[in-house]
Amino acid sequence: MADKSGNRGGKAMDKVEAKDKQHKSWTLVAPGWGKYDPLMCAWAAPVTERMIALAAIRAGSRVLDIACGAGEPALTVAEKVGPTGAVLATDFVEEMVNFARSKAQARALTNIEFRCVDGEALDAPDGAFDAVTMRWGLMFMPDPVACMRRVHAALKPGGKVVVCCWTEAAKNPFVTVPLGVLQRHMEVPQPPAGAPGIFALASPDRLRQVFADAGFRNVAIEQVTLPMADFATGAEYDVFIRELAGPVASLFVQLPAQTQEIVKQEIARDAEAFSATPGRVVLHGITHVAVGTR
After folding, report:
1. Ordered per-residue pLDDT tens for the chain, 294 residues
2. DSSP of 40-64, one letter per residue?
3. Could you tell me where the DSSP H helices lie in 61-217?
4. How far out from the chain centre does Cα 283 lie?
5. What CATH code is assigned to 15-169+193-228+285-293?
6. Which residue from 23, 25, 94, 206 could staple onto 246, CB 3.0 to 4.6 Å apart?
7. Is the bond leading into 73 cis (omega within 30 degrees of zero)?
C-alpha cells in the first residue's frame, strides 16, 4: 500500500516501473536504430523539415532536442543553425546517445552536445532555448505534462516547441500489422487510459491538453503521412520492425523460440497481404506534428 509520498506502490511506483519498461524496450532496439538509420532518416525527412519550419529554427538558433534517439532531428537541426547556433540533444538510452554522437563527429559538427538524460527530469537553464523539438518521444513518457512543463521553462518567451506523436492505431499499419500477429499468440494487455505507449497521445484532444496543461499557447496540430516501411519482401520487413520498434521487440522476446519462428512467418505474410503496392511491402504511418508557443 502506498504512503502519501508514493514511495511504496501506488502511482509514483507505477511511473517508475513504466519508465523502466520503456528504457528496457528502447535499449533492446538501439542496435536496430543504428542499422536502419539511413532508411529512417530518408523516410522521416518530411516530418523533420516540417518540425524545423514550425519551430522557426534558423541560423543562430539555440535548440533543445529531446528523445533524439539515433540523432534526428538534432543533427539536421545542427546543420540548419550553423556555427553561430547550438543544439543540445538528449535521450535516456546511452546506446542511442553514443551512436548519435558518433554521427555528429563523422560529420564534423561542433555545435551540438549530447547528454544521456530522462526528458521528464531535464535540468536545463530557464529561458535558454529559442526552440525545442521532440520527435516520437513524448507518448512514451509516464508523465508527459511534467516533461512539457520543463520544456516551457527552458524556452525563451515566444519560443516554440514542436512535438511529433503517432495518430491512432488504424492509421499506422507499419506497427499494427506485427502487433496484430503477436496478439494471436500471446496475451497483450490493453494499457490503461493515460499509460505511456506508442498511441498514448493519438487523440489530438489529449495532445492539445498536454500542451495547455504545461502552459503553452497558440497550439496547432497537423498530420504528416510517412512511408515507414518499403521493402522487397515481407521477410525483410519482419526483421526491420522487430529490430526497430521497441513495443514489438519487447513482446516478441517473451515468446518461446518455436512460437517466434511462427510469428516471423506470419508478420511477413500479413505485411505482404496488407501492402497495396504490387511487388513490394510498403506500409505507412501518420504522425501528429504539434506546435505551441511559450
Report:
1. 333 333 334 455 477 887 788 888 888 888 999 999 999 999 999 999 999 999 999 999 999 999 999 999 999 999 999 999 999 999 999 999 999 999 999 999 999 999 999 887 888 889 999 999 999 999 999 999 999 999 999 999 999 999 999 999 999 999 999 999 999 999 987 777 778 899 999 999 999 999 999 999 999 999 999 999 999 999 999 999 999 999 899 999 999 999 999 999 999 999 999 998 999 999 999 999 999 999
2. HHHHHHHHHHHHHHHTT--TT-EEE
3. 74-81, 94-106, 144-154, 173-185, 204-213
4. 18
5. 3.40.50.150
6. 25
7. yes
Pull the grid cell for residue 198: 506508442
The residue type at 111: N
Q: How far apart are CA 129 and CA 126, in angstroms?
A: 8
Q: pTM for this structure? A: 0.91
Cell numbers describing residue 87: 543544439
85: Cβ contacts below 8 Å, ≥ 6 apart: 59, 60, 61, 62, 63, 78, 111
Query: Any idea which residue has 556555427 for its cell?
Result: 83
